[in-house]
């Protein structure tokens, strides 16, 4: 069964600290993996996308890594800010589907305290 | 910031009412989607469209219906709302470049509560 599991479910850190969010997936075949940020009451916004051949992608203070062999990805946030408080969603797309079938994780709820 | 809009943002209605959730995008995207999301849970695809006059049901069974008469507009209708329809509904769109790396741009969502 194609699944995307994220950990931890929730995380609280102090402003200025770094953190790493994890994503494990069983989706096969694999096309790409995206990380989205979803603020409370808003729609998700894309942070990064990685295909099979990419193992790291950065977007400002956000750095995503991908290990396609172990089917794991991580999102590292550097020097956290209060505005980083949000849910971070891992989304995996399978290959071969005209729709690019997306499998969503439940997200990690990150809270940054001052 | 993506140019995709949803109205209303919040809606509280009684059981049995007919409602339409509006979604519009100004990016000229051919593909549009409707997702349902409950708190702390993953997004579930309920409808999608590849273009005008094209609509398909998604993975999650839904009693809602959609239409795509214009490229920019993808409304979702519930003929008779029930408390089980209480959820957040997210609309998204993406380009049609024919690759699986097309990014979906999401609207702000409609929070629906059925009493």
Residue stretches of chain A low in confidence (pLDDT < 50, at least 5 long) are none
Rg of chain A, rounded, reads 14 Å
Shape of chain B: globular
Name the poorly predicted regions of chain B.
Answer: none
Class by alpha and beta content of chain A: mainly beta
Helical residue percent of chain B?
Answer: under 10%
Key terms:
heterodimer, A: 114 residues, mainly beta, six-stranded mixed β-sheet, five-stranded antiparallel β-sheet, 0% helix, globular, B: mainly beta, seven-stranded mixed β-sheet, 47% strand
Describe the overall structure.
The complex is a heterodimer of chains A (114) and B (115). With 114 residues, chain A is mostly beta strands. Helices cover 0% and strands 55% of the residues of chain A. In chain A, the strands form 2 sheets. In chain A, strands 2, 4, 5, 9, 10 and 11 form a 6-stranded mixed β-sheet that branches. A 5-stranded antiparallel β-sheet of chain A has the order 1-3-8-7-6, with no helix packed on it. In chain A, β7 and β8 form a beta hairpin. With 115 residues, chain B is an all-beta fold. In chain B, the strands form 2 sheets. In chain B, strands 2, 4, 5, 6, 9, 10 and 11 form a 7-stranded mixed β-sheet that branches. In chain B, strands 1-3-8-7 form a 4-stranded antiparallel β-sheet, with no helix packed on it. Chain B is globular. At the A-B interface, β5 of A face β5, β9 and β10 of B.
Write the layout of secondary structure elements.
The complex is a heterodimer of chains A (114) and B (115).
Chain A lengths: L3 E4 L2 E5 L4 E7 L6 E7 L6 E7 L4 E4 L2 E6 L4 E6 L8 E8 L8 E3 L3 E6 L1
Parallel strand pairs in A: 2-11
Antiparallel strand pairs in A: 1-3, 3-8, 4-5, 4-9, 6-7, 7-8, 9-10, 9-11
Chain B lengths: L3 E4 L2 E4 L5 E7 L5 E7 L6 E8 L2 E4 L7 E2 L9 E3 L8 E8 L10 E2 L3 E5 L1
Parallel strand pairs in B: 2-11
Antiparallel strand pairs in B: 1-3, 3-8, 4-5, 4-9, 5-6, 7-8, 9-10, 9-11
């Amino acid at each position: 069964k194609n699944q995307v599991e994220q950990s931890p479910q929730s995380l609280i850190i102090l402003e200025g600290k770094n953190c790493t969010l994890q994503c494990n997936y069983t989706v096969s075949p694999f096309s790409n993996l995206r990380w989205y940020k979803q603020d409370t009451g808003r729609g998700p916004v894309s942070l990064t996308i990685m295909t099979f051949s990419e193992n790291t992608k950065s977007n400002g203070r956000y750095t995503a890594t991908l290990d396609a062999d172990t089917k794991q990805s991580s999102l590292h946030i550097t020097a956290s800010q209060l505005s980083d408080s949000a849910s971070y969603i891992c989304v995996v797309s399978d290959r071969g589907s005209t729709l690019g079938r997306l499998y969503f994780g439940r997200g990690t709820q990150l809270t940054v305290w001052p | 910031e993506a140019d995709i809009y949803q109205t209303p943002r919040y809606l509280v209605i009684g059981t049995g009412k007919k409602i339409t959730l509006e979604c519009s995008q100004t990016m000229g995207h051919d593909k549009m989607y409707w997702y349902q999301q409950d708190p702390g849970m993953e997004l579930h695809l309920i409808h999608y469209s590849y273009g005008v006059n094209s609509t398909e049901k998604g993975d999650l069974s839904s009693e809602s219906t959609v239409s795509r008469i214009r490229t920019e507009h993808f409304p979702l209708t519930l003929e008779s709302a029930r408390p089980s329809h209480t959820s957040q509904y997210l609309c998204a769109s993406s380009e049609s470049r024919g690759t699986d790396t097309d990014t979906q741009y999401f609207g702000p969502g409609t929070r629906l509560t059925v009493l």
